[in-house]
């Protein structure tokens, strides 16, 4: 009968092998993307045989889930619920976008590869759920406009990785400039919608105060 310490050593080696496979997958997803990552490439990067990869991960979906979990544990995205302590929606938006864009920059290669391949396979769910959570928090506090589809669409665009990448890589903005541009966009949309949805008396008062467009 194997001694307990031998069983522990065997279990430790198995966990080490499994982790090498997962880390190899993470690296290849960032470099090539999930769609171009093969089991052979994972095995080679991890220093194991193909059948070893299949022994630990019989289904492709299993290794994808393990990869996503490992990456997010090493690179946790900002918690949007922490922004709720900021009462002013404009300041909350500015703070949230700054945190989101810093995360996008730090993890650009992985996000670009995974979100590109998300159009053809089931990957990137964690990134997409986090984007939805950010948009939900940043839409709060815009008074009666927080459920307006245009406000939610504007905020949804602002927290989208591909929009950030276009502003940075194609338009040459830095992160702070991108934050200010997107904040201005949402504020302008809110101001226009606020004017359109205010009642006659409210519009009369605004006109008297010189605050209408």
What does this molecule look like?
- By secondary structure, the protein is mainly alpha-helical.
- The protein folds into two domains: 71 residues, Tetracycline Repressor, domain 2; 130 residues, no CATH class.
- It is 72% helix and 0% strand.
- It starts with a helix and ends with a helix.
Would you list the SSEs in sequence order as H and E?
A: HHHHHHHHHHH
| Helix share, percent | over 70%
- Major sheet attributes: none
Distance between the termini: 85 Å
Enumerate how many helices there are, as a single number.
11
Number of domains: 2
Low-confidence region ranges: 200-206
Structural class: mainly alpha
SS strand fraction: under 5%
Shape: elongated
Radius of gyration based on Cα positions: 23 Å
Secondary structure tally: strands: 0
Instruction: Provide mean pLDDT, rounded.
Output: 91
Topology at a glance:
Elements: H1 4-31, H2 39-46, H3 50-56, H4 60-74, H5 89-106, H6 108-117, H7 125-138, H8 149-158, H9 161-170, H10 175-197, H11 200-209
Helix pairs in contact: 1-2, 1-4, 2-3, 5-10, 7-8, 8-10
